[in-house]
Amino acid sequence: MSHTELYSGKKIQCQILSGTDSGLDVTGFAELCFNASDDVVNKFDRETLTDFFASVAKIRENQSKIKGLLISSQKDSFIVGADITEFQTHFKKSEGELVEWLLSVDAVISQIEDFDFPSVAAINGFAFGGGCELTLATSYRVMAATGKIGLPETKLGIFPGWGGTVRMSRLCGADNAIEWIAGGEQYPAAEALKIGLVDAVVDAKKVREASLKLLVESAAGQRTPGQDWKSRRDEKKSPLKLNQIESTMAFEIAKGFVAAKTGPNYPSPVAAIEAMQKGSTLPRDEALKIEASIFAKIAKTPTAHSLVSVFLADQYVKKVSKKYSKAAKNPEMAAVLGAGIMGGGVAYQSASKGVPIVMKDIQNKAIDLGMSEASKLLEKQVSRGKMTPAKMAETLSRIRPTLNYGDFSSVDFVVEAVVENEAVKKKVLAEVEASLKPGAVLTSNTSTISINRLAEGLKNPERFCGMHFFNPVHRMPLVEIIRGSKTSEETIAATVAYSLAMGKTPIVVNDCAGFLVNRVLFPYLKGFMDLVADGVDYTRIDKVMEKFGWPMGPAYLLDVVGIDTACHADHVMATEFPDRMNHTGKTAIELMKEANRLGQKNGKGFYTYTLDKRGSPKKEIDVTAQEMVKSLYKVGPNSTVTDQEIIDRIMLPMIFECSRCLEDKIVDSPAEVDIALLYGLGFPPFRGGALRYADSVGAKQLVAASEKCLGLGKLYEPTAQIRKQAETQTGFYPTV
Q1: Is the N-terminal amide bond of 472 cis, ω within 30° of 0?
Q2: For a disulfide at 599, which of 274, 301, 368, 605, Cβ 3.0-4.6 Å?
Q3: Which residue stretches of the chain have pLDDT < 70?
Q4: Does 474 participate in catalysis according to the annotation?
Q5: Inter-residue contact 343 to 368 (CB < 8 Å)
Q6: Does the domain at residues 2-300 carry the CATH identifier 3.90.226.10?
C-alpha cells in the first residue's frame, strides 16, 4: 500500500491512501493518525492541537480527492483526553477568551463532521474526554472490545467543552448523555454499543480492518437508509428529537436529582445538564455556543481549580511512587499478623489484587473473624455482579490462615497488624523476624507508635518500616509508609511496590508521633474539644464542618474511629507535643470513654446508632450525651461563636500542623500532604486539600485569623513558613 502525505507533525500524520489494506481497495481514502512521538499516549496538548488544526486544513484543501476519512491511533490507546497540566493556564483566561478558544477547537472538529464524505473513528483503546468528543463528530465509531470510553470532565469540576453535550445527547438520547456526562465514569465497549455511542465492537486486532470496511461501504452508499452517513450528520446538526415540553421535563427532573446527589459544592454536573437543555432546541452551531459559554463560567469556579489541582497532585504522587518502586519487585507471598477486621481487610485487599497472603493469629476465633471479613467483602462483589462465585473462590484460596509461623519461611513481605500496644507489637515483631527468610521485609500497621522505638528489638532494623493502612482497608486508598532512622531505601521501595500492587496510594513520610495524617488530625480534634469546653454545642460544630465540606463533623468522626482508639491516640499526641496538644481537665472523648460510650462499635458515643435496612449504622441525636458534655463547659452554653470562628478554630490548627510537618521534613511536598488528607481523612476535594485551601484563603488572612485565637495557646501560632508567605504574598503552591 502506498500513500500521498498531506501532513506530518510530531503528534499527527495525515495521508491519502492508495492500494489495498486489510483486503480492501482504499485508494482515495484519507487517514488522520494520532501518534505522539514523545509520549506513550495521545492527548490533546498545545502541539497536538496545532497538528490537528493543520491536518484538518490539509484535508479540506484536498477534499475533492478524498472518498472518506479514517481517524486512528498508533498507540495502544486512542486519545486519553486533554493535557490536564495545561488546564490551569487556560482557566486563567477571561470568560470571553476561553469561549473564543473553545469555539476555535469546535470549528475544526465540526469541519470533520461537515466534510462531504463519511468518516470513521477506529477506537483501539481508551478514548476519554476530548478523545471521546472527537469520535462523536465522525459518521461512525468502531471500538475494541477491551477499550474504555467516557467523558470524565465532571470529576475535574468542569464538563465536556468540545461538543460533548451537544453531540452525545443527539446520538444517544438525552437520558444516556445525562447519565454519562453528569456521572463522569468510564465505560466498557459493550456499554457504549448498548446506548449507540459506538456502532461496532470487535477484537482489538481487527479494529482497523472493521473500520476500513465500514468506511468503504459507507462511501459506496451501502448503509441502510436513515443509517447512512448523511442522515447521521443531519441528525447531529439538528435540534434534539424531543418536543419542548418533554425535553424541559426530562432535563428539569435530571437537574433536581443530580443537584441533590452532588450538592452545591460541585456545580459542574448540573451545569452540563443545563448546557444540554439550553442547546436541545437549537441547531448544532448555536448549541455549541451555549456549551462554550456555560463551560467558561464553570471553569472559573474555585471547585474546578481545586479538582484540577487534586488531579495534578495525584499525578505527582504517582510519579514519586513510581520512582521509589522502580527497582523493587512485588512480593510472591505476603503475610499479615493479626486476623481481626484490619487483618482481614489487608488479606482481602492483597488476595483480590493477586498477591497470595498468609494470615496468622494466636486464636482460631480471630482467624475465623478475619476470614469472615474477607468473605463478606467478596460476597458483596458477587451480589453486585462485579465478581463471579468462581472468582470469589479463587481469591479466597489465596488467603492461607494459620496459627503458627511454620508457613513464614516462604514469605517475603509481612504486615504486622496486632493490637496498638507498643510492648505487644515489639514482642510479635521480634518473633516473626526470627521466622523470616533473609531479605524479607517487615512492616508495622501502627497509627501512632514510633517506628524507631518498634525497631529497637529487631536484628535487621534496615528491613523494617511502618505501613499504616486506613480503615476500612478496602475503601480507603491511602497507605502511609513510615521511614525509620535505620530503614533502607530498598525496604521503602519494596513497601511502595506492594502498596501499589494492592491498588493503594502510598505516601512516604519520616517517623514522628502520629506520622503525617494523625499528627495533623489531632490538632483539628483538639480545636473541636476546646470549642466544646467553651460551651459550643457539638452537634452545631458537626453541622458547620459538614457544611464546610467534611463528610462528617468531628464528633461523628470520633464515633466512627472509636472513642477508645481516639483517647489512646490523643494521649500519645499530648505526650509527644505537649506545647500544642496537651490539655488540662477532662476532655469530651475522655468523658465518653468513662461512660463506656465508644461510638459505633457499641452503638453509643456522641450520638446513638441503630442499624438501617442495609445493616449500616444510622446516626441519631442523643440528649443524654448532650447533657453529659455540658458538665465540661467552663462557663455555660455559648451561642455567640460564629460559624466562621468555628471553622477557624478547627482548621487553623490543622493547617499550621501541616506546615510544621513540611518544616520538620516529615513529608516532602505540599502535594503529598494534600493527597494524604484527601485519601486518608476525606478532606473536601472541592477545596483541594488543607494546603490548597490555605492558599485560597491567603497566608495574610490566616495570620490575621490566628491573632484572634492566640490566647487559646500555641496550637494557633502560625509557623515561620506561613509568616514568610504572608510577608511575600506567596503560598504553598506556585501560582500559575
Answers
A1: yes
A2: 605
A3: 1-2, 225-226, 242-248, 736
A4: no
A5: no
A6: yes
